[in-house]
Structures are given as C-alpha cells and as structure tokens.
Amino acid sequence: MQINFGGREIALKLVYYGPALSGKTTNLRALHQLTSEGSRGRLMTLETKDDRTLFFDMLPLAFRAPGAGGGMTLRIKIFTVPGQVLHASTRRLVLQGADGVAFVADSQISETEHNAASFLDLRQNLKDLNISLKQLPVIIQFNKRDLDRVRSDDELDALARRGREPVFKASAVNGTGVLETFFGLLHVTWTRLDAEHHLGQMLGIESGALLPMAARQLGITADVPTLLSSCVGGRLNPAPQVTP
To answer: Considering the entire predicted model, what is its pTM?
Structure first.
C-alpha cells in the first residue's frame, strides 16, 4: 500500500497468482470489460503466441471518495504473474509489495498437481520476501468450471470448509465469478488494511461503505453482499455492511 497525501491518493496492489493457463489474464480481461470506461485504465498485457503471460499483466482501477477538498482517490492496481516454472524470479518480483492475492486454480482434475505446486511456489516466494501466508489477505478461485472433467462442487465445497482462505468458483472466459472473486479479494484486503491503518478515516467514509461505493463508481450494478455470498468457504468475515 502506498499513501500520497500530497496527491491525495491511496494505492493498493492486488496480484492474481496461479499455474500457467489457469485463467489469470482472462480474469483481468473480463474485469476490464465489466467495469466502466471512466473508472479503468488501459489493460496492459504481454503474452507469447500460445497465450501465456510472458512477464505480467496490469489493470488499473480508480475511484474517488467524497470528503473535504474533493476527497481522496483510491487507486487499485491489479497484476497477474506468469505461471510457467521458468519465470519464478518474475513472480517473486511482481508479488513484492502486494496487499492481497487471488490464487487462480484450474478446476480440471488433470491440473490438480499443478495447482498444488503453484500454491507451494506462492508460499515459498512469500517466505523469500519475509511474509507469512497467514499475514497476507488471500482468496482462492477455482476457474474453468465450464469445462468437462473438473473437480466436483462437493469436493471443492469440502476443501473450502477445511481451509482458511475464502473460495470462489468461476468460469472467467464467460465472466462468471469474476466480479465475485474481485470483490472478495478487495473485501479481505480492505478489512485488513483498514484495521491496521484506518484507511476509512483517510478517505472520509465508513468502513462498510467502501465496497458499495467502489461498485457504483466502477459501474457495477450487482449487489455486493450478493456477490460475496457466492463464497463457499474460508473466512470472509466480517461481512460487509450494506450502506445506502
């Protein structure tokens, strides 16, 4: 997190992490399409010919909170990491300074080992950065639910109940679960940072007002509590307040 009092801006960094071809870039593309033009910046991608991220993708979103002097701007920068094993140093570099992480897993049964290896890679990179996995807001998305031969809903629900990270299901190529994942990640990240740094006071808003306000300014008409209710496990609490 970066706070620029002179520029009246708070910047958060969110990172989408996961194995190669799990759908991290697809999530950002869908999020870019689902948000209003005035609230989003240019989606920057750098891919190889087989649609694999070469370095990273980045999507900036921004909105302004009401307050004295015009309020402050909350700028959210969303990055992806390259999933291929050979880009380990790049993943660690992109992960540095992250305020929250969405781990994008591939729901296909054949990708179970790759998911596990990538999650261990995330844990190791955080350790190398002197960050404990328990210290960082993390959610998990099981993507590609539209494909055949995927892990069953019952299996994912059981996994979610045993873990601490909130779990969302998605088919990012269709836009399904993309907003749910983003707002779930924003919720756990904001809850943690607001408790530590009183960001709501800086922005001049009630803590529970952040997500509904973000949705309005991003052009999202869906009800935020309804989006978050799709979480199938983990610790998403405290639940956001509904603010008119």
So the answer is: 0.90
Question: What is the C-alpha separation between 155 and 235, in angstroms, rounded?
Answer: 18
Q: Please count the other Cβ atoms lying within 10 Å of the Cβ belonging to residue 161.
A: 11
Q: Give the number of other CB atoms < 10 A from CB of residue 68.
A: 7
**What is the distance between the terminal CA atoms of the chain, rounded to a whole angstrom?**
28
CB-CB contact of 179 with 31 (8 Å): yes
The residue written with tokens 């031969």 in the block is: 149
Distance in angstroms (rounded) separating the CA atoms of residues 48 and 66: 42
Q: Fill in the amino acid letter for 191.
A: T
Q: Which amino acid is at 111?
A: E
CB 165 within 8 A of CB 156: no
Cβ atoms of 157 and 231 within 8 Å: the answer is: no
- How many H-runs (helices) and E-runs (strands) does the chain carry? 8, 7
Map out the domains of the chain with their CATH numbers. 2-228 (3.40.50.300)
4 by DSSP, 3-state: which?
Answer: strand
What pairs with residue 14 in β-bridges? 78, 100
Please give the structure tokens belonging to residue 149. Answer: 């031969």
The tens digit of pLDDT for each residue in 193-239 reads 999 999 888 888 888 899 999 999 999 999 999 999 999 988 786 54
